[in-house]
Design goal:
This protein is 78% helix and 0% strand. By secondary structure, the protein is mostly helical. It has one domain. The longest helix is centred in the last third of the chain and has 44 residues, at 82-125. The chain is elongated, with a radius of gyration of 24 Å. The mean pLDDT is 80.
Length: 127
Amino acid sequence: MSELDVWQQLSEEVAQGNLKLMIHRDKFDAAVKRLQDYIDEIDNLTFLVREVSNVSGLGGFQMGVDLAHKFSRKADGADGSIQQRLKDLADEAKAVQDVLRKAAIAYADTDAEYGKEFKDLEQGIKP
């Protein structure tokens, strides 16, 4: 199971009401901001990897041409490429943000619901 699968499963748990997250607003905001900064850095790296995806200058021999082609494919190829791994990392960070937000909202909704019930109970007890 990949990291992304784990976070998607946690998101489903939140949606089903099985996971809630008690938060301190300042810590929550800091965590979401850090994750966004991380995602932004990954996006910046994606542009840098594109710049180096065309490798040249390894000589005119076939071995040099083959090596340049392998390096280019590693930077911007399909499965296992640097671009793909950066995309995976960004998707994982976005999934973490999503779970944090949903779990915090679920907790706040539950807390508000209990608060209302407590007030209703308190009102019923008063003479």
